[in-house]
């Protein structure tokens, strides 16, 4: 998107300087020297911009680093320093990417400037003379890029689910690029068809034909807007779906209103004491232990792995079993839980993805003093866990691997007094203030961590839209004078300035609305790529695909709003232009 915006800005800047370029050529400056001077100008401006961008980026990174470090530590137990220290090659790499992108974006503009005829150099139509051929090249390039995307999808289809992170990003990038390349040809065809339909409505016919003339200047800004809208919709839908899934997963996991974290040696006494309390409906004891996944026996055969994993034990009681989510089972849900109580295991989606396991496979687990071969009864989702996990019934885990208790969920009767029970536990067993956790507090903290994780994502989404709007605004502002020259004859024919200003708003608003409509399926495709390919390859678990009509409506409204705000100032300036100025413009035609 940045390359599109830079290329559009460079093209408009050179177009505004055509008169000066023509004068220099007439005075004897060769095309080679002219292009060399313009390239040097680009490098100097790019160097200043790159240094300013890298410096501001480092400042922003240092500002956000503490929150990001806290979030990653809470969600993924990842250690991240509190200070940002960048080696010299990061600065050099940033400069190289910035200057390389600038030269890539400006190369076509410089090439066109070097090859233009001197007599045509001052005519705006010279910049549009090859646009039809450019549309054909865009169509071919879009078709080729879409073919690459389809080939990558077919290749990923035959790969293990956990592979293909780079390929997944490449697939999403190819979809974005192909859609952006197809946008100008599609708009050109649509405008041509509408122009034919409106041939009996002179003013509308002129507005559509005029929009065709504006398309060469606006196409890059519209491409940037399409990418920004589709990316925002895709990332927003992924984040919204993750939020719904995460909150639902918390509700399924945290079924007890009170959770106890006590010293290991106290659990036996606490469990015996709670067994006689009438307000306790169920005690959900959990256990933890570390083990090594030695071998996996599947339908294809036996494989030696040696993978470190976590053993986690739960109590399959009446409160937990109906709510615990399962993604795949060997037979059905009730059979899976029955087998689980008898000694079978559940594995999380991360482990199933990483080792290509499925229900019915057998795993050999090795822990200090124990070596067991167990059957997989089901696979369950485990969002946020970066490692593989094997789930066992807590009594089975204690008997087979001598795992120690780690926590206990307390399911209370309907008439139980939580505060009284909390006070009694603290007094009886001398527990600290942090030994008992309320379910609502756990959910609140988890939700806060989640929201903080994606605050930066939402900020970056807003930034991409702002940059796209800026590109559109600068495109319209750069051609404001030439637009006034084109609208002056219509004013002279009796059409009021307010009508012409409204017509300009309608032109750009309609083009933006079409762009927003095209961004909807592209955004859905990006959401699918994020949740079904990239997320699985990066984290080992897949999110459900959620579509939000409200997000789509916001996307369309954003497209039109961005376009209208970008066109507002040029339209206002034209509406406030004195009649004498319009008469002078009309006389210069």
Please give the order of strands in the largest beta sheet. 2-3-8-5-7-6
Q: How much strand content do the residues show? A: 5-15%
Give the N-to-C terminal Cα separation: 36 Å
Please give the share of residues in helix.
55-70%
Mind summarizing the main beta sheet? 6 strands, mixed, barrel
User: Can you tell me the residue ranges where pLDDT is under 50 for at least 5 consecutive residues?
Assistant: 121-127
Radius of gyration: 32 Å
Average of the residue pLDDT scores: 79
How would you characterize this protein structure?
- By secondary structure, this protein is an alpha+beta fold.
- 66% of the residues lie in helices and 13% in strands.
- It is built from 19 helices and ten strands.
- The protein has helices at residues 2-16, 18-26, 31-76, 88-115, 125-128, 131-157, 165-197, 202-253, 267-275, 333-341, 349-355, 394-401, 418-429, 439-453, 455-478, 480-492, 497-539, 549-575, 579-587, and strands spanning 258-260, 280-298, 301-314, 328-329, 345-348, 362-367, 370-380, 389-393, 404-412, 436-438.
- It has a six-stranded mixed beta barrel with strand order 2-3-8-5-7-6, surrounded by four helices.
- The longest helix is centred in the middle third of the chain and has 52 residues, at 202-253.
- It is elongated and about 95 Å long.
- Mean pLDDT is 79; it is low at 121-127.
